[in-house]
Recover the amino acids of this structure.
């Protein structure tokens, strides 16, 4: 099973769980499984069309999925997936 690391701001939607085990496949199927198991996460990760929001960065290992095959990036059993929401701020 692949491991998805949940960032601190989103852990309140996963019963304060920092790491979750998800079946392999693709990023798309992994995020779908994650949001099915934790429906409150859906609005934070996916837009109204079910696509990963532009401000949510997802890494497979050390690589941004935007530099790979995006949602179709393969997720193997030993893969570590990190969800990193963008942080807005100012001066």
């Amino acid at each position: 099973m692949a491991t998805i690391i949940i960032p601190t701001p989103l852990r309140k939607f996963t019963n304060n769980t920092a790491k979750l085990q998800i079946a392999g496949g693709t990023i798309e199927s992994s995020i779908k499984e994650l949001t099915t198991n934790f429906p409150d996460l859906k609005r934070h990760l996916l837009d109204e069309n079910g696509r990963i929001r532009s401000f949510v960065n997802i890494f497979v290992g050390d690589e941004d999925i935007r530099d790979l095959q995006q949602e179709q990036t393969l997720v193997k059993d030993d893969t570590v997936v990190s969800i990193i929401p963008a942080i807005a701020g100012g001066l």
